[in-house]
Amino acid sequence: MAEIRPFRGLRFDCAKAGSIEELVCPPYDIISEEQRQAYLEKNENNIIRLELPKGSDPYAQAGETLRHFLEKGVLARDQKDSIYIYEETFTVDGITRSFKGCIVRVKLEEFSKGIVLPHEETLSKAKEDRFNLMKATDCNFSQIYSLFNDPQHNVTKWLDTYSDGAALNELTDAEGVTHRLWAVTDEKAIAALCSEFADKKLYIADGHHRYETALDYRNYCRENGTAEESKDYVMMMLVDMEHPGLLVLPTHRIVRDLESFDAGALLEKCKAYFDISPCSDAASAQAGLKTEYEKGNKAFVFYSGAGQYHLMVLKDPAAVEALLPEKSKSYCGLDVSVLHTLVLERIFGIDAENMAKQINLTYVKKSEDAIASVDNGQAQCAFLLNPTRVEEIRDVAAAGEKMPQKSTYFYPKLITGLVMNQF
Questions:
Q1: Other CB atoms closer than 10 Å to residue 132's CB: what's the count?
Q2: For residues 86 and 205, what is the distance between their CA atoms, to the nearest angstrom?
Q3: What residues have CB less than 8 Å from 216, skipping those under 6 apart?
Q4: Residue 387: which residues within 8 A CB-CB, separation 6 or more?
Q5: Residue 196: pLDDT over 90
Q6: What phi and psi, each to the nearest 5 degrees, are found at residue 351?
Q7: DSSP string spanning 232-274?
Q8: Which residue(s) pair with 302 in the sheet?
Q9: pTM score > 0.85 for this model?
Q10: Alpha-carbon span 366 to 384, nearest angstrom
């Protein structure tokens, strides 16, 4: 099954580069140009110069910046092969959580082998960007985030054992998330951890584009005579999918710019599939949504403005299965599958291509933003969802299927810049 290896990580020398707080950044795809400039104003050595280069030839610029950082000692490779332990501690809704994972090299495998499994579709433009960056730098600057099954939790026990001392790096970011990194160099300890993954599959949680890019880059190097063993691997952060600190947040949907929209008519048509009950306000709607989640029911909240909330609970899962006979029960049982199939497609006429291009549909992380978009007239209605369960992600991936767009939002994101993988 999954083959993992230690590696000599490329890391900032803070004595030359500056404080670690000024050198890291969030994932490149959630950073605005204004934020990018702010990171560089704090420290010109920030990883954003490598991960999100700009200019007439941004990829060549990233390659040149990496060479400069190496020559000046801003970045240096660790002297020993290491497995890195990474911990995030954060607070959501007044509850503090934390989880640990291991940052390793993972052998690249085609999805068809069933060893590394995806759960969502990718976009070609994003893959082209990451491919060009990889060609110019021969480096992974950020980790792919993957999950694994570990009923005995042996990996988590190993992580706790080898992270009881002082961390190599520790920082708290602008969102209040604390990040810590340790390095394990003991060969016997590393061998013991690697053996734990011999029977495990890996489920990609975040980083599908980067994984597919790594496969493409490996094949490109083979075809052009520049292949080497290190390019058969990619850097990943691996986390036990049953870790109590793991958190998946929902991504809500807002509907806009439909030629004809009638909230009352929608609710009437939905009665064929859902038990519908009005809610007095946002708080009671969210409470009802949570209750249905705890019962294991498929439900979401429909908001049409002017304080009009309705809780919609699916009557019969067979309704979705009948419309998607080619899909597994796991796929048909997703809240997003229920919403997309029975409401957005069947009643609103928003097909899969429309959703992918976000013509009449927008994805929103915060429920208050979804509600505000309706109240201020930017949207015609909003659907508030429960989070997708981690086991649902596993089951859909194991069935060889990919979930609807924006089905999962793992929080918090992994920070970029603590450790890098140079081929």
A1: 18
A2: 16
A3: 127, 131
A4: 248, 249, 250, 293, 408, 409
A5: yes
A6: -85, 180
A7: GEEEEEEEETT-TT-EEE--EEEE---SS--HHHHHHHHTTTE
A8: 310, 383
A9: yes
A10: 9
pLDDT-based confidence at residue 378 (cuts at 50, 70, 90): very high
Kindly report the average pLDDT of the chain as a whole number: 95
Q: How far from 68 is each of 37, 45, 49, 65, 75, CA to CA, in Å?
A: 20, 10, 11, 5, 9
Q: Which two tokens stand for residue 24?
A: 């890291």
Residue 355 has pLDDT above 90, yes or no: no
Q: What domains sit in the chain, N to C, each tagged with a CATH number?
A: 4-247+411-422 (no CATH), 251-386 (3.30.1760)
Banded model confidence at residue 366, pLDDT cuts 50, 70, 90? very high
Structure-block tokens of residue 400: 């060889």
State which amino acid sits at residue 235. M
CB 45 within 8 A of CB 143: no
Helix, strand, or coil here: 59?
helix
Contacts of 384 (CB under 8 A, 6+ apart): 250, 252, 285, 286, 289, 300, 301, 303, 367, 370, 371
- Cα separation of 366 and 378, whole Å? 15
Tokens found for residue 328: 């597994």
> Which strands form 309-314's sheet, in the order they lie side by side?
274-279, 309-314, 299-303, 381-385, 252-255, 361-364
Give Dmax (Cα) for the chain: 68
Q: Are 262 and 270 in contact (CB under 8 A)?
A: no
- Of residues 405 and 89, more confidently modeled: 89
Residue with tokens 């549909």: 361
Q: Indicate the pairing of strand 309-314 with strand 299-303.
A: antiparallel
Is residue 216 a contact partner of residue 252, using CB atoms and an 8 Å limit?
no
Tokens 């949207």 belong to: 379
Name the residue among 27, 206, 227, 78 with its Cα closest to residue 138: 227
Q: Mean pLDDT over residues 40-66, rounded?
A: 96
Cβ(83)–Cβ(18) below 8 Å: no
CA distance 387 to 409: 8
- Helix %, strand %, coil % of the chain (to 5): 40, 25, 35
What pLDDT, on the 0 to 100 scale, is given for residue 123?
Answer: 65
Q: Could you read off the pLDDT of 265-317 as tens digits, one per residue?
A: 999 999 999 999 999 999 999 999 999 999 999 999 999 999 999 999 999 99
Whole-number Å distance between alpha carbons of 332 and 317: 8
Give Cα separations from 416 to 12, 43, 145, 167 (angstroms).
Answer: 12, 15, 12, 17
